[in-house]
């Protein structure tokens, strides 16, 4: 069964396995999430549930969103995400999903918005190397280099790697392993790093490759 939940990145720490080896993990506050909407093949053409995460004041919600939450008879939520499932018959609007939807050993894909790096040059942005600082390079050792030919084609080809905005894009890290689930505190420890800084809203779902 396909599973999914919304969470918030708490930070990184380390755990130890039975043999004493260190496992670097990211701690995620997963849920509780409320089912705000249920989509079926008959009504929408596919099966999915919309989950809400995080409380928000009713006066901070616009009229359209307020009507959406009122129809579902649930308190306004700060974050909404949709998860396509194979079977939604067992889930109903108003149900609460917690961290125990996943168990230790599960493979998950974690998606979130990466850290913003601002305006960066080609060395940091694309990993290009510096020019040789010998005769003639001048003060341009970190520049992008040649833009292209002169008379033919007399233009810069699309896709040329140039300086620009780096980071702050949606990133999915695939095939991470759930190391530990703390059902009492709604925490999930995932092996490795996940996108974003502390406090970033992320989604966990079954790995599409595992």
Give the helix/strand class: mainly beta
Instruction: Give the overall average pLDDT.
Output: 91
The residue fraction in helices comes out at: under 10%
For the largest beta-sheet, the strand count, sense and barrel status come to: 6 strands, antiparallel, barrel
Q: Give me the side-by-side strand order of the main sheet.
A: 1-2-11-10-7-12
Q: Which word captures the global form?
A: extended
Reading the helices and strands in chain order gives EEEHEHEEEEHEEEE
Portion in beta strands: 35-45%
Low-confidence stretches: none
| Strands, count | 12
What is the first-to-last residue Cα distance?
Answer: 13 Å
**Whole-angstrom Rg:** 23 Å
Individual helix count? 3
Outline the structure in words.
With 210 residues, this protein is mainly β. 9% of the residues lie in helices and 41% in strands. The protein has 3 helices and 12 strands. The strands form 3 sheets. A 6-stranded antiparallel beta barrel has the order 1-2-11-10-7-12. A 4-stranded antiparallel sheet has the order 5-4-3-6. The two termini are 13 Å apart.
């Amino acid at each position: 069964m396909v599973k999914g939940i919304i969470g918030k990145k708490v930070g990184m720490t380390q755990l130890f396995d039975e043999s004493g080896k260190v496992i670097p993990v990211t701690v995620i506050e997963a849920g509780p999430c409320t089912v705000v909407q249920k989509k079926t093949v008959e009504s929408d053409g596919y099966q999915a549930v919309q989950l809400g995460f995080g409380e928000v004041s009713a006066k901070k919600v616009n009229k359209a969103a307020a009507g959406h939450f009122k129809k579902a008879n649930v308190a306004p939520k700060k974050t909404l995400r949709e998860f396509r499932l194979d079977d939604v018959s067992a889930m109903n609007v108003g149900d609460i999903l917690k961290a125990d939807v996943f168990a230790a050993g599960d493979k998950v894909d974690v998606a979130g918005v990466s850290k913003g790096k601002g305006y960066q040059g080609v060395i940091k942005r694309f990993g290009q190397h510096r020019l040789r600082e010998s005769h003639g390079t001048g003060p341009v050792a970190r520049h992008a280099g040649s833009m292209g030919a002169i008379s033919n084609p007399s233009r810069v080809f699309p896709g040329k790697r140039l300086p620009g905005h780096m980071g702050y894009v949606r990133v999915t890290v695939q095939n991470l392993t759930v190391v530990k689930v703390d059902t009492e505190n709604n925490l999930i420890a995932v092996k490795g790093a996940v996108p974003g800084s502390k406090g970033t809203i992320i989604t966990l779902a079954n790995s599409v490759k595992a």
